[in-house]
Amino acid sequence: MFTGLIEEKGAIVAVEGLGDSVRLTIRGPLVTSDAGHGDSIAVNGVCLTVMSQGAGTFAADVMRESLERSSLGDLRVGDEVNLERATRAGDRLGGHIVQGHVDGTGLIIDRTPSEHWEVVRIGLPTDLAKYLVAKGSITVDGTSLTVVEVVDGAEPWFSISLIPTTLAETTLGGRAAGDRVNLEVDILAKYVERLLGAPHRDPHPEGAAHE
């Protein structure tokens, strides 16, 4: 589990094609400082497993499912990425509950700068729009953010506000209109949908023993 609070901006140092998967080598001195084989690190919001380590770098394999659902397949050597280590029990949950399981990608529509922040509009798939609410949580490229506005329709979109810290310390500060970003909706919304949509089942069917 993650919180969506980015620990550092890393960089892609190698991309190796493995047929139906890709091996990424990523520079991240902070996140690798205490990482070991098998540990989880979120890369642009996608939970990856550390396969090997070097001097301030780690390698992770990205399977076809992740390549199809996320923008990791677009990464090239030199690209910056958002990095976060898995949360430890007892740590502060400063963002929100993030699984590192990307639901799909969105496209940045435009950015509106202000004196101290920027408002960014992002288009998203229709099937994901239903999980967003104003003042709710959304993860964009691994960054926990608050939804400002949601607009449904044939081409749904939502907006977020980026404060100076987010602009400076995550890759979102350099994203431009047309860029693809990874989206993970709030897992709580999906659980609620599942519970409300599931047919009623009698916990004590006829003939079953119960107290």
Question: How is the secondary structure organized here?
Answer:
Blueprint: E1 8-17, E2 22-27, E3 40-43, E4 46-49, E5 52-53, E6 57-62, H1 64-69, E7 80-85, E8 104-113, E9 118-123, H2 126-129, E10 137-140, E11 143-151, E12 157-162, H3 164-169, E13 180-185, H4 187-197
Antiparallel strand pairs: 1-2, 1-7, 2-6, 3-4, 3-7, 5-6, 8-9, 8-13, 9-12, 10-11, 10-13, 11-12
The CATH top-level class label of the largest domain: Mainly Beta
Number of domains: 2
Silhouette: globular
How much helix, percentage-wise, in residues?
10-25%
Fold-level CATH name of the largest domain: Elongation Factor Tu (Ef-tu), domain 3
Question: How do the helices and strands follow one another from N- to C-terminus?
Answer: EEEEEEHEEEHEEEHEH
Strand content: 35-45%
Number of strands: 13
Helices, by number, come to: 4
Give structural notes.
The protein folds into 2 domains: 78 residues, Beta Barrel (Elongation Factor Tu (Ef-tu), domain 3), CATH 2.40.30; 93 residues, Elongation Factor Tu (Ef-tu), domain 3 (Beta Barrel), CATH 2.40.30.20. The protein has 4 helices and 13 strands. It has a 7-stranded antiparallel β-sheet with strand order 4-3-7-1-2-6-5. A 6-stranded antiparallel beta barrel has the order 8-9-12-11-10-13. The two termini are 37 Å apart.
Summarize this structure briefly:
This protein has helices at 64-69, 126-129, 164-169, 187-197; strands spanning 8-17, 22-27, 40-43, 46-49, 52-53, 57-62, 80-85, 104-113, 118-123, 137-140, 143-151, 157-162, 180-185. It has four helices and 13 strands.
